[in-house]
Design brief:
alpha+beta; Multidrug-efflux Transporter 1 Regulator Bmrr, Chain A; globular
């Protein structure tokens, strides 16, 4: 039986971090992505629906090995963790979660192209009766970033962000968050199964050199 690729084990620099900031160059990665707005904690909100759709598409691609259209170059893999790109139009609203603009994403295996992605979306639409119009095949190259592991509740992320901000300043870098480069989070724990104090979240901030 062929090996199953686990991205968290294969790319440890992206997922297995220490609680001290580090500088990293992120190459182009492909994602299934859904952009929206609103409080991610709203159980019946847009964010919850986006997560459902992301996983439906991901598992459809993963299980395509069982169907009539096995993608060229297919390899089996562990579905990577959920990630999120976050933005607010007004920084004064940073604590108002209803104003959050987000792009919810999950990494796609390298064999996926536009055609394979569209076929997966069509399958999800037909078999699960889900509207897939908002799902996008996203190619993004984040480039130079500072990242750090945050341990604990999401609402305590500011304490880890202070470490990142200090690292940026001490290393002659500038925070480069803008409308094209967003605050990035990778969720290594399932908050439905893990108590808040034990949550693990990668925080990644785009930067540029002074």
């Amino acid at each position: 039986m062929a090996d199953v690729l686990d991205y968290k084990k294969e790319y440890k620099d992206f997922y297995s971090l220490k609680t001290q900031p580090m500088l990293i160059e992120i190459p182009e990665i492909h994602f299934v992505a859904i952009e929206g707005k609103g409080d991610p904690n709203d159980k019946d909100g847009e964010y919850a629906k986006a997560i459902e759709l992301l996983y439906a598409i991901q598992y459809t691609i993963k299980m395509s090995k069982m169907g009539d259209h096995i993608p060229e170059g297919y390899f089996d893999y562990v579905v990577p963790p959920l990630e999120g790109l976050w933005w607010v139009d007004n920084k004064d609203n940073i604590k108002n979660k209803s104003q959050y603009i987000w792009n919810s994403i999950i990494r796609l295996p390298e064999f996926v192209n536009d055609k394979i992605f569209k076929r997966a979306c069509d399958t999800v639409k037909q078999k699960k009766n889900l509207n897939t119009e908002k799902a996008k095949y996203l190619k993004t190259k984040e480039g130079l970033c500072v990242q750090c592991m945050h341990l604990g509740p999401f609402d305590e992320e500011p304490k880890t962000m202070k470490l990142i901000d200090s690292y940026i300043e001490e290393n002659n870098l500038l925070n480069d968050i803008n409308k094209k480069r967003w605050h990035h989070e990778i969720y290594l724990s399932d908050p439905r199964k893990v108590e808040p104090s034990k949550l693990k979240t990668v925080l990644r901030i785009p930067v540029k050199k002074i």
